[in-house]
Write a structure and sequence with these properties.
Blueprint (H helix, E strand, L loop, with lengths): L12 E7 L7 H4 L1 H14 L3 E7 L3 E7 L7 H13 L9 H6 L10 E4 L3 H17 L14 H6 L24
Antiparallel strand pairs: 1-3, 1-4, 2-3
């Protein structure tokens, strides 16, 4: 992926997938308090809104909206990863990790998708909610503790009945292989 340029749309809503280097790890749920603290600190310094978020053992999905005039989500992710990593023992290091003084905990890159419209936003938010079910971690989305679905039920964004099932419309071919 050399030379890849990320789109930069100020004020955009963006869906992210961010993964640990070791996809068999459960570090994110074991250290969810550390992750929450890292996100809170970065949001205080560089504000962004959270439409949806789900933390799984080895990766997370989020939908953010950025302030008008600001498109720098890469800096925010870098800061979240760095804050989360501080104080943790190093993972399996390669030469490139040592050269960059990294701990080898995170995959270096992340995947992002700029939200196109309201239907796209709703599909990605629901994808976050249902992801623990998709991965076989729970039978119902509401049974997963590390999800914004609980906030969204409280504020009436999602019907509690939906949160217990897997609607066919949530799955799309491009996500099926994750």
């Amino acid at each position: 992926m050399p030379g890849y340029l990320r789109p930069r749309a100020p004020g955009a809503s963006v869906f992210f997938t961010v993964a640990l280097a070791d996809r068999r790890s459960d570090l994110l749920v074991r250290e969810v308090g550390r992750l929450r603290a890292a996100v809170a600190a970065v949001r205080a310094a560089r504000p962004f809104g959270i439409e949806a978020w789900v933390v799984l053992p080895d990766h997370l999905h989020a939908v953010w909206w950025l302030p008008e005039g600001n498109a720098d989500y890469s800096v925010r992710w870098g800061a979240i990863k760095a804050r989360f990593t501080r104080g943790l023992p190093a993972g399996r290091l390669r030469e490139s990790h040592e050269f960059r003084r990294e701990k080898g905990i995170w995959q270096r890159r992340f995947w992002e998708h700029h939200i196109r419209d309201e239907a796209d936003l709703e599909a990605h938010v629901r994808y976050c909610w249902i992801n623990p079910v998709k991965h076989g971690l729970v039978e119902r989305a509401v049974d997963w503790s590390y999800s914004s679905i609980h906030r969204d039920i409280r504020v009436g964004r999602v019907e509690p009945e939906w949160a217990g099932t897997v609607p066919d419309s949530v799955f799309c071919e491009r996500w099926a292989g994750e």
